[in-house]
Amino acid sequence: MSSTSSPSAPVVTRFAPSPTGYLHIGGARTALFNWLFARGRGGKFLLRIEDTDRERSTPEATAAILKGLTWLGLDWDGEAVSQFARKDRHAEVAREMLARGAAYKCFSTQDEIAAFRAAAEAEKRSTLFQSPWRDADPATHPDAPFVIRLKAPRTGSTVIADTVQGDVTFGNDQLDDMVMLRSDGTPTYMLAVVVDDHDMGVTHVIRGDDHLTNAARQVQIYHGMGWEVPVFAHIPLIHGPDGKKLSKRHGAVGLEEYQVMGYPAAGIRNYLARLGWSHGDAEFFTDAEAREWFDLSGIGRAPARLDFKKLENLCGQHIAVADDAALQAEIEAYLEAAGLPGLSEAQHTGLVRAMYCLKERAKTFPELLEKAHFVLGSRPFEPDVAAAKSLDSVSRGILTELTPQLQNASWTREGLEAKLAEVAGAHGIGLGKLAGPLRAALAGRTVTPSVFDMMLVIGRDETLARLSDATR
């Protein structure tokens, strides 16, 4: 058996997380790949919450998933579907497969199954359970609890025609008659996934390669129901920089952590798209380009490695080209997510005015806000340790001399550059030597925009007042 699907069908993809914890960065990439593939082809991107594990699924985790996808900018079509809410439909399909002869009732108890496996292990043969009820005459069925098992083929092989992994073959003798409906009438994950994907019209199942074995078993359900099999694309998992499976020891693994650390969503989208997928040599690209370029053939088979330096570099490029108003809104959302104080009206206004000179070379929002201290802080600006070193007696003397000369200077970049060059030249120093003390006076920091940008943003009166504070 092989998995095939009609290439002419409208594209429908889905992201189907389990709400048992945070949204993993690997899950976010899976969602992004599905979103890009669908959006680039005018198709649908659906969201299904696989909440059948009632003990571990929580409303809080579901809310975190929705919030994370929204922050990442991945919109889905229609309402998010609850898998648990569809349990009656799943059970209906199991009973239909029973009627078709593609499944059977199994009355074996847990003790009998355990005894079978123990005997098989002792005799060094396969421990895959072979139910004695597979071909039993229904007339012999007892009045007892039963599960419904898939009647899987015992010989031959199941082939998954995977667009990333190539053809992957599973010997049917390695696949058991899995349980589809438990004795209490609840469906198993394997059945629920197939029924939901079929009913939702999913044409392409793009997910982690840890689901590859699941695909072999799920294909048999598709065939048992006579349903068309979707196109499968099993993508390699994300590893840490050391090549080992990504875990907390490598740093942030939950998507929400990246927002709290101050990475822009556009940068995360770009980086995650590039993590395991490529389009020529393109590293930095826009959402529109990603939607246009993304295809399954560009996904590699080897696990991708998380690289924070590359992530920061891309994020810096996205901050630099971002729309000022959009960037302002995202910064304020970052402050809220990180539990930091919001901006006052005056700070908001100052940040808007200064944004043009803050965006370059800031790789994260904390870096940008540090550069923005000159408009977010207020007089008197107390210099930090590094900045204070540049405010020695000689520097203070030069600033004292500069202050009255700025009273009537032309308040343009050219005018300010000329005036500062004149004062620096009179003391036999370069502009660079004057910039350090000026930064300390205007911002109390060493990492700032250019002194000319700061003076233009805060204006003449505020500049003179800060110089006066620093030279007292």
From TrEMBL:
Aminoacyl-tRNA synthetase class I anticodon-binding domain location: 344-470
Catalytic activity: tRNA(Glu) + L-glutamate + ATP = L-glutamyl-tRNA(Glu) + AMP + diphosphate
Top-level taxon in the UniProt lineage: Bacteria
UniProt short sequence motif 'KMSKS' region, positions renumbered to this chain: 245-249
E.C. no: 6.1.1.17
Pfam families for the chain: Anticodon_2, tRNA-synt_1c
Main location: cytoplasm
UniProt GO molecular function: ATP binding; glutamate-tRNA ligase activity; tRNA binding; zinc ion binding
SUPFAM superfamilies hit by this protein: An anticodon-binding domain of class I aminoacyl-tRNA synthetases, Nucleotidylyl transferase
Binding site for ATP: K248
GO CC annotation: cytosol
Span of domain Glutamyl/glutaminyl-tRNA synthetase class Ib catalytic: 11-312
Motif 'HIGH' region positions after renumbering to this chain: 17-27
One example of a Gene Ontology biological process annotation: glutamyl-tRNA aminoacylation
PROSITE patterns xref list: AA_TRNA_LIGASE_I
NCBIfam families, per the entry: gltX_bact
Family of this protein: Belongs to the class-I aminoacyl-tRNA synthetase family. Glutamate--tRNA ligase type 1 subfamily.
Subunit structure: Monomer.
Function description: Catalyzes the attachment of glutamate to tRNA(Glu) in a two-step reaction: glutamate is first activated by ATP to form Glu-AMP and then transferred to the acceptor end of tRNA(Glu).
Name of the molecule in the record: Glutamate--tRNA ligase
Organism: Frigidibacter mobilis
Top-level taxonomy: Bacteria, Pseudomonadati, Pseudomonadota, Alphaproteobacteria, Rhodobacterales
Gene: gltX
